[in-house]
Amino acid sequence: MTTLFTDLDSYSEWRNSIPFGKTIGFVPTMGALHEGHLSLIRAASAQCDFVVVSIYVNDLQFGSANDFQHYPRTQTDDVNLCSTANVSVVFAPLKSQLFPNEIMTLLQPSNAADHFEGSDRPGHFAGVVTIVDRLFSVVKPTHAYFGIKDYQQVAVINHMSSQLHPDISIEICATEREPDGLALSSRNRFLSQRARTSAALLPKALTTAITNWKSGVMQSSALIDAVHSVLAQDPTIKVQYISIVQAGSMDQVQTVGSADVVIAAVVIDGVRLIDNMSFANA
Amino acid sequence: MTTLFTDLDSYSEWRNSIPFGKTIGFVPTMGALHEGHLSLIRAASAQCDFVVVSIYVNDLQFGSANDFQHYPRTQTDDVNLCSTANVSVVFAPLKSQLFPNEIMTLLQPSNAADHFEGSDRPGHFAGVVTIVDRLFSVVKPTHAYFGIKDYQQVAVINHMSSQLHPDISIEICATEREPDGLALSSRNRFLSQRARTSAALLPKALTTAITNWKSGVMQSSALIDAVHSVLAQDPTIKVQYISIVQAGSMDQVQTVGSADVVIAAVVIDGVRLIDNMSFANA
Predict the structure, then answer these.
(1) Are the CB atoms for B180 and B62 separated by under 8 Å?
(2) Contact of B151 with B173, CB cutoff 8 Å
(3) Angle at CA B23, nearest 5°, toward B4 and A106?
(4) How far is A127 from A130, CA to CA, in rounded Å?
(5) Contact B18/A at CB under 8 A
(6) Which domains occur in chain A, in start order?
(7) Mean pLDDT, residues A184-208 taken together
(8) Contacting A residues, span 105-144, partner chain B, CB-CB under 8 Å
(9) Of the candidates A119, A256, B196, B221, which lies 20 to 30 Å from B184 by C-alpha distance?
């Protein structure tokens, strides 16, 4: 049975009833749950005594009020989905309870936030670490689950958590994909049928980098060019960035090793999509 | 009976044994306890079911390694003093347990840190909020006690805590003073006999501002000049700043009202002293 808490005190009362030593797996979400979230919930469920899923659309991490307002909200479906997935608690707090006072930008992300999503979306990662820190403080999990699909977010959250919540174990889960390779994302539902077809080129392009690397191309620039070439087949795809970075640090590399990752962001028909692949999986 | 914990897990086990609903009053210190700390402990004791005193000399908030190394360390005396003051727990954690991973400057103080101590001691308040946030997360108090003697620190901690730990009630205690008015401080023990005599001019000078305001002088600049004049009587006193600020915000004021505070920092014989007085007490 899944319990829905929207009140901080009610949640804390439940949390305090859990004996010391029991594990709490936490899956923070912005709702609009899909198979990608379910894979995080399954991982938490396999590893922990209790699973808590939060649903909170964090305005701090949106660049525009418009983007925030149009983010999909499907709370009834989300709670039902959690019930079928044996989630112990859905926590959907009010902003006025999470942040009862004026919000200042006190928390800054690490250097891993400097480029890519960080430069394309100013203030985004400050908003992310602010909410994740606050949710960690309130939810008090022993484990927290994030999808590697948001590669840079995982790096930034790892840094924040390792310092501010070193007792919480951060668990990283693989990206769930559609049959044609498209990474699952809440934003996919905004893709028109034509854009949805184009979107499949993104994982295909990243796979090209992995394949070329396996056949001996080690130069980052050559691999990135190959990704660009695949995406250039479709003029409706606007590339925001393609880069190859060191795992964790987000530092760009010249010569690619197996610990490195190719990351990309594109916009198709006004919908922004990100994806990444690790050379370790080659 | 006072229990000394140096291990995070042992402390957390104790903390988890305290029933939900009981109050925990927390007095964070850097040790070298004196009557000023005792007044905080007494306030916590009067208000809370349990009192936790932490002793941790936070290197992050020192400008120089030398100042950090020479900060007084008197742990045995401190624990004994806590015992006589009915402190439940003394928590003296190791840095390696508080910060098991690389320390990044993720936490920034609010704008209240921009001037005065903040500009005289770069990085000081980032170090303060980093340690206080971490101690709040580990100690999990319901109330935390700070002395108004560190006026700007109280403003900065209030801002940090109101956002990151809004459930913790911040309690502010009055400044304890020697018979001649000198505010108690761990640094006072570094004053030579001659410097100790000079130091009494600091509270006397601040009192002059209060007295003049009571007799009708409302201009900030005139009141500050009067403080300077008193301190100028002793050429061994080097003024670092004298200012009149709005309570809480630390914004400088032109015309002084009862919610404002006169703050000052001086150096006497190499020892830096700060003090403040509120016009509300006039």
Answers:
(1) no
(2) no
(3) 85
(4) 5
(5) no
(6) 3-173 (3.40.50.620), 186-274 (3.30.1300.10)
(7) 96
(8) 105-111, 129, 133-134, 137
(9) B221
SS3 A49: coil
Helices vs. strands in chain B: H and E counts, helices first: 11, 9
Q: What is the pLDDT of residues A172-192, one digit of tens each?
A: 999 999 999 999 998 999 999
With 90 as the cut, is the pLDDT of residue B159 above it? yes
How confident is the model over A145-173, as pLDDT tens digits?
999 999 999 999 999 999 999 999 999 99
Structure tokens at B83: 């015992």
Both tokens assigned to B10: 């042992």
Instruction: Answer whether A137 sits within 8 Å of B104, measured CB to CB.
Output: no
With an 8 Å Cβ cutoff, are B163 and A137 in contact? no
- Asked if B82 reaches chain A (Cβ–Cβ under 8 Å), the answer is no
Q: Are A72 and B95 in contact (CB under 8 A)?
A: no
Stated as kind and residue range, the H or E segment containing B203 is: helix B201-214
Residue of A16, A105, A106 lying closest to B164 (CB–CB): A106
Catalytically active residues of A are 37
Q: Assign residue B257 a region: left if phi > 0, alpha if psi is -120 to 50, beta otherwise?
A: beta
pLDDT at B281: 76
What is the number of residues in chain A?
Answer: 282
How close A260 comes to chain B (CA, Å)? 22
Chain A interface, mutation test: which of B95, B105, B137, most A Cβ atoms within 10 Å?
A: B137
Compute the mean pLDDT over every residue in chain B, rounded to the nearest whole number: 96
Strand order across the beta sheet in which B169-173 lies: B3-5, B89-91, B50-55, B24-29, B143-147, B169-173
- Paired with B26 in beta bridges are B52, B144
Residues 153-182 of A with CB under 8 A from B: 159-160, 162-167
Q: Per residue in A17-75, pLDDT tens?
A: 999 899 999 999 999 999 999 999 999 999 999 999 999 999 999 988 888 998 989 99
CB-based contact A108 B106, cutoff 8 Å = yes
A101 touches chain B (CB under 8 A): yes
What the block records as the tokens of B281 is: 């007490």
Q: B138 or B66: which carries more pLDDT confidence?
A: B138
How does DSSP classify residue B258?
T
- Residue of A12, A94, A106 best to disrupt the B interface, most CBs of B under 10 A: A106
Q: Among all residues of chain A, which has the CA nearest to that of B15?
A: A20
